[in-house]
Every structure is written in C-alpha cells, then in structure tokens.
Design a protein that fits this description.
CATH topology of the largest domain: Rossmann fold
Largest sheet: 7 strands, parallel
Number of helices: 12
Helix content: 25-40%
Strand content: 15-25%
Number of domains: 2
Radius of gyration: 21 Å
CATH class of the largest domain: Alpha Beta
CATH architecture of the largest domain: 3-Layer(aba) Sandwich
Oligomer: single chain
Shape: globular
Structural class: alpha/beta
C-alpha cells in the first residue's frame, strides 16, 4: 500500500554522512524505502550538533556548511546509495529553523533527540529511533532522560525494548533488515584459508578492539601461519601490529570480498545496539565469534550459526578461535548455517513494520 507524497517525514542525524556508519546506513535504507512507498522524505545532516553553541562554534559551523554545500562532501556517495527521491539536507546545526516542517520528525542519535525535544509542535510529530544505549556519547542518566522525552520510541533490538519497559516507557520493536544480495557467499568456506581471521578496527573503547589485538598476538604465537585482517573507514592506525593486514574504507563489493576471503570473523564489542558487521560476515559465510551481549543475541544462536565469547576477555576470544581452528567440521557447519539463519531479517518486512510504527497512534496510557 502506497501513501500520498503529502506524507512528509524528516530524519535528523548527528553529523555529515561521508564516512561509513552502521546507524546512518540503517537510516538511509529506511529513507530510500519509505520514498519508494510514496513518502516525501528528507534527511538532515548537521555540521555541528553541540547542545550549546558558542559564537565561535556557530561561525565555524557556518563556514563548514558553505564549503560542504558546494563540494557535496557531506553525502554518503562513496559508500552507500540513497534514492534520488530523498532530500539530503545539510544544516549548520539542528535548530528547527534549518529543518523542514513535516508530518513526522525522527531523531536518530541522542544528540538529535536533545534538539528535537525543543522543537515547537508545529514542526511535526516527534519520534525517537533508538539504535543503541548511547552511554558512550553521554552519561547513562542523560541517556535515560532522553528516553523519557514525550516522543514515540522505536528500537532495533529486544534488549533495548526491555530497558524502555523497565523505565516505564513504551517502545516499538523493529528489527533491522539485512541485504542478502549485497552480502552473500561467493567463496565456499572450504576454499578459504582455514586460519584467517577478520575484524573491524574502531577507535571507541567499547568496540573491544584492545582485547581483539591482545588475542591475536597470542593466536599468532599459537598458529604462526595465522592470517589476520581488519578494516576501518580511516587510514591504518600506527599502533596496529605489523602481522595484521589492513584495508582502509573498503567499498561495499570490496567489503564483501574481505568477508568471503576470511574463515573466521570476530566481533569483540562490549556493547552494540545491533551488530551489523557480524551479520554481514554471517551472510558471507564466515564462522562468526561474537561477544555475548544483547546486540549480538538478536541474531546469534550459540553453537549453531555463530559462537559467543565473553565480553572484555582476550582469553575467551583465543579460546573460541582455537576451538574453530581445531574443529574445521564444526566451523564449516556454523558457517554454512549462518546465512540461512538470517533470511528472516529482510528490509521488505522491516520497512513495513517501521512504517506501521510511525503511523500508529501513541497508547493513551503507559503500561502499569
């Protein structure tokens, strides 16, 4: 069922979109798919999302705004396709003066929620799209305060819905869709080097990279022929051990190739709303090892389509990698089942649930 183009929806992000990011990718996916369903969609990219702006910050933001406006460098052109029907808007900051009046306005990360909460009601009905418990951005108290804002909440994971319920808030659960066309098996598991390991490098401590690096040093000692690879949307970090191969800002086809050349993928995060990279790796037929956290429990069946390890433990990563290396039949079975198990997560279904969540009225009372 398509809706009239008069149905206007605006997504508020927290920065420009030129670098790959899982949360932005999900927003762009919904934006494009809602546009295809007849919505008038806009995505706003602020230059500066600071809660309070000094005169100096305002001047810097405005200067960058004009530069990025001319160069179009704020767009995700190099890493993700967005429908031409979606209006990609650059704003110096998230003041409501720079945001189009819409039927619905959706704050995506926490900074956008802080701005949206101050908007006049005439700008549109307010919604909060929660993709993680963002205590790496702000204190847990501030995070929970934003969850109390008078906005309809949509969450990507059941563990986030549970947090909302414990706080007396209602949140609609809409699982992420996955792209099983962009990410698929092109090299059978048996044709891959069996002692190859891939992971994502990240500067945030909560991504658990330090534990991953400690584990790889030990694994290299145990398995001298270990082939370790990682990728990130930035240049090779100087602290990365020489034996680890690094790919900077791979294209989507390049990323699919990296997954398909790897036997094992490790997701060492201490916290995730929903772990997209391990899902991509599973779709590409890797044997995935992921930390036992809510954002991985959404799709991992331990020992069946992936293996769980302890968060914050290099020793546990070593143990699970060694388990797969020394049990190739087990690793192959897990890798074979992984893409099949994720077919239930598809964008066609998710966008229908997302659209329904937007359009449904708020409950008149909070649950007791």
């Amino acid at each position: 069922m398509k809706h009239s183009p008069a149905k206007r929806i605006t997504f508020l992000l927290n920065s420009e979109g030129h670098l790959p990011a899982g949360g932005k990718r999900v927003v762009y996916e919904y934006a494009s798919r809602l546009a295809a369903r007849g919505w008038d969609v806009a995505v706003v990219h602020p230059v500066d999302v600071s809660a309070s702006l000094t005169v100096k910050k305002k001047i810097v933001a405005i200067l960058r705004f004009f530069k990025w406006k001319v160069t179009k460098s704020f767009l995700p052109t190099k890493w993700f396709w967005v429908s031409p029907s979606v209006r990609m808007i650059l704003a110096p900051f998230l003041s409501h003066h720079f945001v189009p009046t819409s039927d619905y306005i959706i704050a995506c990360p926490i900074q956008a929620a802080l701005w949206l909460n101050r908007y006049p009601r005439r700008k549109g009905r307010k919604l909060y799209f929660i993709q993680g418990f963002e205590d790496w951005e702000m204190s847990p108290d501030i995070v929970m305060a934003t969850w109390k804002f008078p906005m309809k909440k949509i969450v990507v994971a059941l563990w986030l819905q549970d947090i909302a319920a414990a706080a007396g808030e209602t949140a609609c659960y809409v699982p992420n869709g996955l792209d099983n066309k962009a990410f698929a098996v092109t090299i059978p598991y048996g044709a891959r080097f069996p002692r190859s390991v891939l992971f994502v490098h990240h500067s945030l401590a909560l991504k658990g990279v330090s534990f991953m690096l400690d584990a790889l040093v030990e694994l290299k000692r145990m398995f001298p022929d270990l082939a370790a690879h990682c990728f990130a949307p930035y240049p090779r970090p100087s602290s990365l051990p020489d034996f680890i191969t690094f790919t900077s800002n791979p294209s989507q086809p390049g990323l699919r190739d990296l997954y398909n050349k790897s036997a094992v993928f490790v997701a060492p995060s201490l916290s995730e709303g929903w772990g997209l990279p391990p899902c991509e790796a599973m779709l590409c037929g890797c044997a995935v090892i992921a930390t036992d956290i809510g954002g991985h429990r959404e799709f991992v069946e331990d020992g069946r389509n992936a293996v769980l390890c302890k968060p914050g433990s290099a020793e546990s990563i070593v143990e699970k990698v060694e388990l797969l290396f020394r049990n190739p039949a087990m690793a192959s079975c897990i890798a074979e089942h992984a893409p099949i198990s994720l077919q239930k997560f598809n964008w066609e279904t998710s966008v229908q649930i997302f659209e329904k969540a937007i359009l449904e009225d708020e409950p008149s009372e909070k649950p007791a």
